[in-house]
Amino acid sequence: MFRTCRKEKDRVVFQMGTADPDRALAVARLVEKDVAAIDVNMGCPKEYSTKGGMGAALLSNPDKIEAILRKLVSGVSVPVTCKIRILPTLEETVALAQRIEKVGVAAIAVHGRFKDERPRHPVHCDYIQAVAQAVSIPVIANGGSLDLVKTYEDIEEFRRATGAASVMLARAAMWNASVFSSQGLLPVERVMEEYLKYAIRYDNHAFNTKYCLCQMLRDKVESPLGKQVQAAQTNAEISEALGLQEFYRQTEEKLQTRREAVQSSSPPSSPVVDGDVVTMAVKFERREYPPQITPKMVLLEWSRKQRMEQPLYETVQRSQDRAFQSTVTVDEKKYRSSLWEKSKKFAEQAAAIVCLRFLGVPEGRIGEKDSDLVCKRKRESKTNGRTEEDRRKKLHVADVLQELETSEQRGMKAGSEKISRSSETSAD
Question: Which residues participate in catalysis according to the annotation?
Fold first, then answer.
């Protein structure tokens, strides 16, 4: 999932891996109004990328490179760039860069390693320099994190050594983002703390937050702090590891207040009849419902009470971004959300919400008037609580009876052994 915010609209570049011009354009159009530029990664050597014909696999197919970039350049309103690795010879590398330039890209990033080389191999600054001299568009030098760039001053040294217009950093920035500060590197612990505050403010996914923090820890990842971060499963637990529990609590309260304000101020979507289908712009937000309740469950319970056939769901997937949309049929009428969801389950829940709202049936949201299903679940919960208490009492009584029985058996056995020993003594 790609998430962004208004603050970074003019500074973030959306990079994609692709092997299909049409799908590349479809994806670019989904995000072009929210980013500064679109970039195509044609240098990733990882198998998950190359097996699909993406990344560095494109380097051996310049026709496809040209087709993808031409489609993007002519199809979106923001600048298009790409990143490549160097080819087996300097001449081939320059020729590819010149061909890319003619398509109309705004800039080209050159990772100064061959397709089969890894970070442990030295970066080839001469190749990057040759490309920079051969094209008129800006060239971005990449690949110097391990050997060449460790401080802010090193960035300019790398740029001069390659003759590039600018420098792209990945690992060096991930290890310590203050490498971009002209005031010098900050202690990594302080950078981790500042990063985590951003992650909390913008509700970043906990697994991504944890991954980035572990990258910053590097060889300290097995330290007590590292182990605590690795064991964390939520942003709350990560905050506890770094001593930011109070910051997390206060920020979560603000975020929740903002969510509630947005929900209360947003007018409900009006139903629209699209052919034989009732549609509404509805998204399914799991946090708006109790753990044991979903709109699908509410709709199913309502249908049973009305003596109707159970709801029937039909779901389709959109090819360009693999999003889902579901249509539910209830009492021979169809309902669908006009918004696409990230999963089949969420799409079905959204369709159920549309149906319930159109029919005026409470859907089970937190704070909403209780539906029949919510009331039923509450009764079952109380009943289950009493049943569990009764079960524990029965088990306790059974344990006591068993203990008494065992004690009695032990007493009988002891008495029997005493009689036996007395008989043996008499016999002697």
Answer: 44
